[in-house]
Design a protein that fits this description.
- By secondary structure, the chain is of the alpha+beta class.
- The protein has 3 domains: 2-56 and 279-418, no CATH class; 70-100 and 239-267, no CATH class; 105-232, no CATH class.
- It has helices at residues 7-19, 21-55, 89-97, 138-141, 155-160, 169-175, 218-225, 244-258, 274-317, 319-327, 332-369, 383-410, 413-418, and strands at residues 63-68, 86-87, 101-110, 118-122, 125-129, 131-134, 145-146, 164-168, 186-189, 192-201, 214-217, 230-231, 233-238, 269-273.
- A 6-stranded mixed sheet has the order 11-6-3-13-1-14.
- Strand 9 and strand 10 (192-201) form a beta hairpin.
- The radius of gyration is 34 Å and the shape is elongated.
- The two termini are 33 Å apart.
Amino acid sequence: MRFIFDSNTWQEIFGSIGKNKTRTIITVIGVLWGIFIYIALAGAAKGLDNGFERAFESTAMNSMFVWAQSTSMPYEGFKTGRPLQLKLKDVNTLKNRIPEIQYIAPRNAKGVFGGAPATVVRGQKTGTSPVYGDYPIYTKIATKKIFDGGRFINDADIDQARKVVVIGERTQKEIFEIGENPIGEFIKVDNIYFQIVGVHKFIPGGGFESETDMYIPYTTYKKLYNTGDNVDWLTIAAYDDADVIQAEKDVKNVLKSIHRVNPDDERAFGAFNLGEIFKRITGFAKGLTFLSLIVGIATILAGVISIGNILLISVKERTKELGVRRALGATPSEVRNQIILESVFLTIVAGILGIILGAMVLRLIDYLTQGTDFPYTNPTLPIPYVLGALAIMVILGTLIGLIPAQRAVSIKPIDALREE
């Protein structure tokens, strides 16, 4: 290994490179472009993956929403077009019959799907806001960040049908003065007094909720709006290792059985499967990363082969020089190692420049996408991936350097000295 630190070795390497500057630069660009493509594409895929994770960070990635619609096929004497209605008892039936379900939360809402929102009054200030009837288990599926001093709906609120409410931060700003603590205060929601027990911070993503939303106990909502056992929709989270696509099918099949719907009726129940979307996004990101690896390695290989060609030409041009070195006592291993070192050196330089350029492009993309609604953030590539790509380049550079190195070693000193 001493030849690596020998100044004469590097003088000869730089001298060889300097004789063919243009040709060397063009070849280095080929290798540089390969690692750049890999870094840029793989980093972009990671940024997309991170972006969707951030956009839906408050919602379980294996969750889904299910609601009732109308039948599109006759069944057991029922005509087509029969309106369906989810019931509270459906929750226990689904939980008992589908083991893949981890959490299931029935939900009712006013002012969400085109209906009039609830009227909110405090003193002389009024406003409007969507209101949800929820169970505490809902926060197991969609996280609710509650500001200090407050809380979300609890089991006691459900059991006693308490008139308590969790308001949004925007509602707080509209009906309270700056610095005024809303916890414990009373407001009127559709002419009924409710005590505020918490203020939630709105986290975008994962549904149709907003910063003005209010949450009250499901049982209280049931009494306030006389909904009986009707449920607007179900929010369901499957276990992490469950197939959420199959879980959705199972949920619909059980609901069809409960509500006497034709098993082939695909329009009776609607669903929005976040788990399926995440699966597709993750698959796309992995596919893009794999594509970047294939394209990058192929481009790197083409560039490394170009380096080998340059070195072959260099060996041909330096035939007499190599003959003199052999005549003066240079061993075949010394000549071989110098050619291989030159190949590895050019490959590493190209790789480092490509990594730097790729990192700069990813940084620029990250800067341009900040503050936008596009789900994209932190497009980076793990260090082991980068080091792995660089290691592959070094290996390829070494292997391709063996060809011109062997060519140099095969030159007989007497033949080299005769060549003009």
